[in-house]
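Help! Submission page says 'invalid entity' but I think these are all valid:
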Amino acid sequence: MKAIVKKIGQKGVFVKDTDFIENLGVTIRTLYTGVCGTDREIANDALPFIRAENGNELIIGHEAIGIVEDPGDSDQFKKGDLVVPMVRRPGKCQLCKIGHQDYCIDGDFVEAGIRGKNGFMREKFRDDEKFLLKVKDKEIQEIGVLTEPTKNVMKIMETFKFLSSRVPWYCGDSTFSCKNLYIYGTGSEALLISFVFSTLGFNIFLVNRHPVSDKIQSIINGIGASFLDSSSEDYENKLSRNRPDVIIDAVGSSEILRKSVEKINNNGIIILFGTSGQLMEKNEDITGYIVDKNISIAGSVDGSKENYREAIEFISSNKNRFPFKDLITGIGSPENIDKIAKKDKDEIKYIIKW
Ligand code: BGC
Ligand code: ZN
Ligand code: ZN
């Protein structure tokens, strides 16, 4: 059985013939796995917290959708069910015990395909039914692979709702139509954020340091949002004319955070999701802004089983409203491992068909 494997400490990933690793549980035949920034970092040996389950090799892949081949002794699943597996698995802390390993207190969790547990980039795997979600809508076999990144967005939404309850936050007419949401990044996660948040009625701006492809531009236009190129001359002007109320960073740069606290409106909300940069490396004095403006800043990582359920529901019920299909710009075979390490020009989401 084919699997995509990473040797810890060695650059690149490779295809390897493996056996089943798990003896018990639901047997799943993988249909699609998605590639995200985390996988790219793994392939480029740039993810500091990668850990094998056993020895020094890890089967990668954490975004997956598959089909139940053998339910084992599960009574929740039957042969032919479409399922999405969860990434993070609980450790022993108080929050892990109640299904909130996404808020794990002590870091004693494992993540499939990332740290301490083999992932889903393999032809088949077995899993505990507790960590599987059923996808009832058979029409979303392909875009259902976007469930895992969408569950991150559901948690961001939960975080937004929590932070926005600090003070009355709606516009005078009970809507969010006077509020500007800035999303930093224009990759698949940023676009999924824009889909989900557009349902709240914000004015949405997606920002990047360079122009975007026609395809990305048309996805952004299609949901009624705008794109801003932060390297362009009129960016500062546009920013001053439409100051942000909410900023969601899907990039991970301390520079974005520094600029955000300066430009955001009072009572603003900043949610940091991106991790590719190192926060606060320059130790700039931003605390003054944060305090004086009552800015709420929250980090957000991973999501609960409930967030996965919401993600499946969101994709299924909005499959004709949002262009999920357009986010998938490439479908390749497992052998095509070069595509994991390097993003193609104009790529949004690359997935592997098993
Ligand atoms: C996944 C999260 C995970 C995070 C850090 C992301 O790509 O979507 O579930 O917690 O990586 O490992
Ligand atoms: Zn990911
Ligand atoms: Zn824990």
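Support: the input was valid. A stray whitespace character was the problem, and the output above is from the cleaned input. The pocket of zinc ion (ligand 2) is lined by residues 36, 38, 62-63, 149 (CB under 6 Å).
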